[in-house]
């Protein structure tokens, strides 16, 4: 019997790492009757089939825009989040180093830990790549997260990043 889940997920990471590009690519790439992009709002909605868990997930993907500095915005951004993508740009080391901050802010705001997937984005920019696969994977291992390398530009592994997060979120609620 397939199960239905609804999860709020948050896009975490420094400016210009590709959070909005990944969100748009994921939510607009595959049109189906359940597809809905919430215009002018903070989130996009996408329904995902997860065959490996015999489940359907309605994901509400929250993406912070320019108002990141305001504490009240951040509280409502994190409230109720069940998982997140921790995104960095492989061409900028600073964005990789800052992942710890984003992780801490999310956990502190929620007063608990939530499943996260580390996403190394912009792998199409191979010539300007600074952070290696090994470093990215090592960091993900250390914080107990899975690791995906993506390009919002080409679409490579964008679906995988979100689907992987779906699987972990489903496991986190069903393994109790
Ligand atoms: P943010 O939402 O994290 O702030 P954006 O980041 O999604 O706005 O992306 C910032 C810039 O990086 C954008 O370029 C976007 O097109 C680009 N970008 C995002 N993902 C990728 C990727 O995988 N590969 C490449 N090459 N570029 C990417 P502009 O020029 O529009 O500012
Ligand atoms: Mg953005």
In short:
By secondary structure, the chain is α/β, with parallel strands linked by helices. 36% of the residues lie in helices and 25% in strands. A hairpin with a 4-residue loop joins β2 and β3 (55-63).
Q: Number of DSSP strands?
A: 6
**Which CATH class applies here?**
Alpha Beta
Number of helix segments?
6
CATH architecture: 3-Layer(aba) Sandwich
Helix content: 25-40%
Order of helices and strands: EHEEHEHHEHEH
Most strands sheet: 6 strands, mixed
Strand order of the largest sheet: 2-3-1-4-5-6
Descriptive key words:
176 residues; alpha/beta; Rossmann fold; 6 strands; globular; binds guanosine-3'-monophosphate-5'-diphosphate
Please render the helix and strand layout as text:
Blueprint: E1 3-12, H1 19-29, E2 43-50, E3 55-63, H2 71-78, E4 83-89, H3 93-97, H4 99-110, E5 116-121, H5 133-142, E6 146-149, H6 158-174
Parallel strand pairs: 1-3, 1-4, 4-5, 5-6
Antiparallel strand pairs: 2-3
The chain binds guanosine-3'-monophosphate-5'-diphosphate (G3D) and magnesium ion.
